């Protein structure tokens, strides 16, 4: 179902009751909202405004609303105002259900003017039922694509069924976006703009990761949106023609997400193509720090480790390193001598520099 069709249905609910309405999925992501001409500033209820502007209600608002039993309700639920929670105006919640499962909610601004036995609510509930039927069908289709995506990313790499299910969407360049962590049991996001298929994955850290199939041109936008909605770090894999090599793109996306955690300069979102040395380092198995470098990685030598990394990042150029660290050049020389004494490495030697640089970057990936 298109966004326009959902918009038409929510406009119908607004017209029936003469009050502003919004439609959110069960993950509290905004699907549609109805316009309402009024001089009443209650229309600008902070929670409603934030939902429209950010396309999602906050976790705190979700907890507040779910406390009224909306996930189990089969009919309208009245929710009183609570200024402390940002809910300036009371609401009627019409659960959007199908087959005994809640798929979303219609929210109507209402401070008690509408009785729960108001006959107009029968018509609005019919709208909710029609929306529920459509959301359920989309959820089934999305879940099936998610299963096929997960299978395509498995060691067996079963991608033919995914290609068949996607049809023409399987043609042309594709890539994967990884968001980590993704806790087990968290709802899979639906209606994510730019997403072709979405699936939680067991790989990607202690809490797993979310895999999103997307076009390369829109992949960074998908990654930014995921971070806005769920936090964590996102990585974008390299582009692939079709679905046959998506498992490799997934490995790259995970590596990029891991690097985005380690390196602040990526701002929480990294592309495989821009990882530089981390393309190699993320492919190496985790191992104990090299014995020469291990003493430098202790918490008591964090300043020296940072100095060594910046020094090597700037190819050993003292002036640039001192400027980057905001210290005097003589202070830098003193720290470099301490680093050499602590590790036994000669920072004028190319191989010693390489060993130290790789060890420091690998330590960053391990969170040392």
What would you note in describing this structure?
The protein is an alpha+beta fold. The chain folds into 3 domains: 3-138, Beta-Lactamase (2-Layer Sandwich); 153-281; 294-366, PucR C-terminal helix-turn-helix domain (Arc Repressor Mutant, subunit A, Orthogonal Bundle), CATH 1.10.10. The protein has 12 helices and 11 strands. The protein has helices at residues 3-17, 46-54, 59-66, 120-152, 160-166, 216-230, 246-262, 278-281, 302-313, 318-325, 329-343, 350-366; strands at 21-25, 30-33, 77-79, 91-98, 101-109, 173-180, 195-201, 209-214, 233-236, 240-241, 269-271. Strands 6, 7, 8, 9, 10 and 11 form a 6-stranded mixed β-sheet that branches. The longest helix has 33 residues, at 120-152. The chain is elongated. The protein starts with a helix and ends with a helix.
Key words describing this protein structure:
Arc Repressor Mutant, subunit A, 3 domains, 43% helix, 368 residues, 6-stranded mixed sheet, alpha+beta, 5-stranded antiparallel sheet
* The CATH class of the largest domain: Alpha Beta
- Name the helicity range: 40-55%
Give the overall shape.
Answer: elongated
Structural class: alpha+beta
How many distinct domains? 3
């Amino acid at each position: 179902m298109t966004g326009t069709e959902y918009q038409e249905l929510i406009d119908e609910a607004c017209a029936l009751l003469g009050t502003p309405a919004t439609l959110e999925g069960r993950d509290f992501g905004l699907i549609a909202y109805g316009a309402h001409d009024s001089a009443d500033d209650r229309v600008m209820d902070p929670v409603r405004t934030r939902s429209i502007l950010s396309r999602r209600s906050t976790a705190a608002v979700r907890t507040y609303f779910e406390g009224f039993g909306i996930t189990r309700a089969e009919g309208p639920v009245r929710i009183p105002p609570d200024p402390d929670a940002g809910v300036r105006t009371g609401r009627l919640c019409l659960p959007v259900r199908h087959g005994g499962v809640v798929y979303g909610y219609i929210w109507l601004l209402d401070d008690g003017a509408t009785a729960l036995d108001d006959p107009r609510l029968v018509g609005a509930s019919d709208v909710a039922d029609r929306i529920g039927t459509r959301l359920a069908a989309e959820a089934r289709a999305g879940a099936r694509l998610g299963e096929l995506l997960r299978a395509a990313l498995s060691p067996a790499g079963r991608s033919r069924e995914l290609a068949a299910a996607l049809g023409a969407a399987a043609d042309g360049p594709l890539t994967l976006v990884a968001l980590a962590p993704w806790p087990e049991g968290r709802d899979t996001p639906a209606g994510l703009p730019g997403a072709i298929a979405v699936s939680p994955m067991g790989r990607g850290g202690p809490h797993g990761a979310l895999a999103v199939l997307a076009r390369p041109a829109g992949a960074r936008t998908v990654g930014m949106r995921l971070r806005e909605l769920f936090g964590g770090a996102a990585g974008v894999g390299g582009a692939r023609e079709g679905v046959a090599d998506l498992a490799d793109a997934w490995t790259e996306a995970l590596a990029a997400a891991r690097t985005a955690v380690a390196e602040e300069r990526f701002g929480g979102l990294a592309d495989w193509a821009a990882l530089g040395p981390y393309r190699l380092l993320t492919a190496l198995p985790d191992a104990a720090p090299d014995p020469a470098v291990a003493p430098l990685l202790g918490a008591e030598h964090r300043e020296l480790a940072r100095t060594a990394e910046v020094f090597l990042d700037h190819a050993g150029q003292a002036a640039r390193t001192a400027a980057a660290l905001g210290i005097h050049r003589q202070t830098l020389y003193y720290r470099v001598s301490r680093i050499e004494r602590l590790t036994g490495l000669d920072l004028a030697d190319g191989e010693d520099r390489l060993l130290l640089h790789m060890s420091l970057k690998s330590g960053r990936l391990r969170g040392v």
